[in-house]
Amino acid sequence: MLRRFLTASLLFLFASPLRAFSPGPAHTRVELLSESTSLSPGATVWLAIRFQMDKDWHIYWKNPGDAGMPPSVDWKLPPGLTVGPLEWPAPEKIVQTPLVSYGYLNEATLLAPVTVAPNAPTGRAVTIAAHIHWLECEKLCVPADGDVSLVRPVTGGAPEPDPQTAPAFAAARARVPLADAGWRFVARAAKDVVHLVATPPEGAPRIRDAWFFSEDRGVFDNAAPQKWRSSGDHYELDLQRTDISTGPITMVRGMLVSDAGWRGPDSERALDVQAPVQDAPASNSGGTLP
Question: Where does residue 261 fall: left (phi above 0), alpha (psi -120 to 50 degrees), or beta otherwise?
């Protein structure tokens, strides 16, 4: 009961504007990277916002869990440039009993595509900038913000790759959830539990354990155990709903994370999940992983 009260209270607290907190010294460094040294009309290039935290400090995922606030980005782009949604790497569970949050320790890199209009003039340099807010926490939390920018020429040729930033982008993509990997998902709603059913593609490696991170805050109990189990030709995972999640759920959205790698050893640890919810309870029968 205490944990539920704290969770509801912190959800309300961290929904308040960031200016409600007293600012303090930043324990996080943030920078803007580009995968390319140039831009080109009609082409899309990738940007990265890299956060580097002091030892033992963390920031939050887009669903921060029981407490916290995700980073927000206010892009400042010249005419003719548009930016797409952020791509978030797989988070970690951050346990501060009785609360469980989702976030990043040490370092996190968010990716974003930027597209140049086909009729954008060439022979000029443009500035891409962003103002970023984030909440950084260790034992206490400190709101912080910063400005980042970079300048790139708009040329008539294809965008030139930047070899200096290539390792950072490769590492960031390795942590982004794998999509369109052949896995099929459906969810079945029971009274207080949603059963997630995951059917692997032919030839997929055996996954012995996985944890589901929900994109939607307040829907599932972050501290509740999740038992990943095999059942015939598929896997099942029970997701406990929170007391404040009383409305119907039509889609389970988030990612499954497994240290095994979804395409074998040393492959992607995170798998994108978009599972439509059916109003029929799943059977709990079936085999277990050996």
Answer: left
